[in-house]
Amino acid sequence: MMTTVDAHTLMVLALGMDVRKLAILRMAFRMHKAIRYQLSESAHDVPVLAIVDVDSPQGWAVWDGFRAAHPALPALIVSSFAITDAPAPVLPKPIRVETLFPALQQLLVDKPVVAERSPLVAAQAEVALAEAPRVAVISHAIAEPVSSGTAVPALEMTAAMPASDCDGQQDDPVIPVAQKADAVPQVLPRAVAVWPQAMGSFDPNAGLYGVLRTLYRKRRSAAVLAHGKVVLHFYPAQEKCELLADLALLVQLCAAPKSELRLAVLPDGQESARPDAPSAHAVLWQVALWTARGRMPRGLDGNSQLRLRHWPNLTRLAAIPDAMRMAAFWTRTPASACMAQRMLGLQASDLCNFIAACLAIDLLDARLSAAACSPPPMVQPLPDVARRGLLSRLLVRLRGA
Amino acid sequence: MRQQDNKIIFTGPVGAGKTTAIGSISEISPVSTDVQASDMTLNRKGETTIALDYGLMQLGDGVRVHLYGTPGQERFDFMWEIISKGAIGLIVLIDNSRPNPSGDLQFFLNAFKTLRTHAPLVIGVTKTDQAPQPSVEVYATLLEKFGLHPPILEVDPRNGDEVRQLLMALLFTIDPGLEG
Ligand SMILES: Nc1nc2c(ncn2[C@@H]2O[C@H](COP(=O)(O)OP(=O)(O)OP(=O)(O)O)[C@@H](O)[C@H]2O)c(=O)[nH]1
Ligand SMILES: [Mg+2]
Fold this sequence. Notes:
Chain A is α/β, with parallel strands linked by helices. Chain A has 12 helices and 15 strands.
């Protein structure tokens, strides 16, 4: 049976890979929202790109067989070994989404998107090419849908495909656009959230956020004073924090990181927190939201590789839209905020708030540089279409209840 | 996909809140087989589940998600494997007020090793209103040793919204990009 696809989906043939690698690839495609790729898993599918792993026991025979069957299909070779004179672009392993998607995009740039083996689609594409000689691929996110008739000075824009995930407008999805866009059915533009070129930031070492974060990391108890008045007692070792000032004052302090804050030892008899005091995490998390207000902690940017050590205890923390998605995403694999935004289609401000909050409670591992990233971890294969339908409906029910 | 495969398993020690959790989200009156506890469970609670709990969520068009709760007592552990066959997810409820909740967690991770290889796991920590410690951090450190990074969420099983959050965490663990 042919895999169900809509007109926006690009089928990708993957060869020389075992079930686990295919599962990882399937997941990466599923999560990549800007361009919908899908593994070609049936003889009836019409692939427009291929990825050929030449490290399998069959080695280059996989490539030879592929080329014989698909003489014109744009392909990417993946290998752990350096290859000279490769017959197609090579993506070194480990395959990471950060490099895979730009490489696939480059294939789309280099070759017009004409599906193989489907006379109907190929004929349509030929018509499109004849009518619109400037059919091309432009890189990068288009926040509004491209209307038909948009003339695109396209090819020169694709020449420099940045390696980073997000240099503002420079690096979002490849979107083929024809002068008669409706004549090219294979790939359609999709509204995509764009990582802001100039993302606001805040100093994670300043203000109440900075003070509490430092105390928490050192597990040091203290009384915190603002303008000479005690505003809270912090007990990180007991995971507690007693609030002794109006919330309005705390909000004000978070918004004014230069306010004068002082630390003092906890008064006698108050070395232990009241049992009903809020948890240290709940206060740190809330202070992070009041401080970040959609901004990134300075020192991190959209390209920083981030990972969560574990899920935050989200049922006991102030809500951030899509926090569960972000927690699931970043406990699974190290990735940048840009990548998370692109794959999950989230608001940059929510991502920044989540990052600031996780940094405050010491859950964020941001030391990983892109180069030090481990290969993609073993992941559960994504559910098949039928099961995904069930899970989506269950999600709707859980949200709506 | 067979209909009976749409099931989610709630497990955990005696009194962790399995019957309560299923009862707070099931759309039918949960089918339960609780009896007066007569042996070692007696000093902890008056009623215990001896067979299993069953609840249901109906998604329309006849599509259903079945919720099964295992009996907490270890002498019924022969039933666990039978119940969990084909489940789409496993929720382990840990009662923080028991003497060794970390030991309980390890016990249930081992008991459901087979299911864990193909179904995602979520940990719900209950009775934190009575016993705030161990914290989620402590469980996370333990799970890390098993190479596991599941959601660990404090929940009160009497609160349906919190139980639903556990299920949502399970869904996003399967697919962070799940739309719905
Ligand atoms: N205060 C408080 N009570 C809880 C919480 N969770 C469960 N309970 C109570 O604990 C008791 C036991 O809950 P059950 O749902 O019967 O536990 P179970 O896991 O089904 O127990 P078994 O069937 O014996 O294995 C009930 O009275 C619940 O209301 C919690 O988070 N806080
Ligand atoms: Mg019970």
